[in-house]
Amino acid sequence: MRGAAAPLRHPPPRSGRREQTTTTPTTETHLDTCPAGGDGDASVHGYISDKTKYRNRLRRLEGQIRGIDRMVDEDRYCIDILTQISAVTRALENVALGLLDDHLKHCVLDAALAGGPVSEQRLGEASEAIARLVRS
Q1: Residue 35: strand pairing partners
Q2: 3-class DSSP state for residue 43?
């Protein structure tokens, strides 16, 4: 059995920009951009070409989760609710895998080509993200 569940956090207000952080203990600043080759200029994130697809899928998942909430409110059969939770979980994992794939093909690859500390940071972040997905 896994450890105790993490406490629920309230999402930040939509009007403000969330601060980007990393869970890796490091003395380097967390970079919120992807390096673009060796010239040091920042480029867009790897998922940008599929951003609309990802946002649409996340909105559908949001609707599915609201549907699960309604099922609980309406005292629906436990197995039906668990089936829906399983479907949402699989769909969310697919979104995560797509984002990870885009990150590896764009951000990590560009950082590796650029070399230096950014390269090591991106590889470490990717390894940690993969480990989190495997554990979930």
Answers
A1: 42
A2: strand
Contacts of 77 (CB under 8 A, 6+ apart): none
pLDDT at position 32: 55
Is the pLDDT confidence value at 66 over 90?
Answer: yes
Of 10-19, 29-38, 50-59, 111-120, the range with the lowest mean pLDDT is 10-19
| Helix ranges restricted to H, the chain | 51-73, 78-103, 109-114, 116-135
- Give the up-direction half-sphere exposure of residue 28: CA atoms within 13 A in the CB hemisphere: 13
Q: Mapping DSSP to helix (H, G, I), strand (E, B) and coil, where does residue 38 land? A: helix
9-48: b (≥16 Cβ within 10 Å) or e: eeeeeeeeeeeeeeeeeeeeeebeebbbeeeeeeeebbbe
User: Between 5 and 109, whose confidence is greater?
Assistant: 109
Tell if the pTM clears 0.85, that is, is over it: no
Number of neighbours of residue 87 by Cβ within 10 angstroms: 13
Average pLDDT over residues 110-119: 88
Q: Any idea what DSSP says for residue 106? A: I
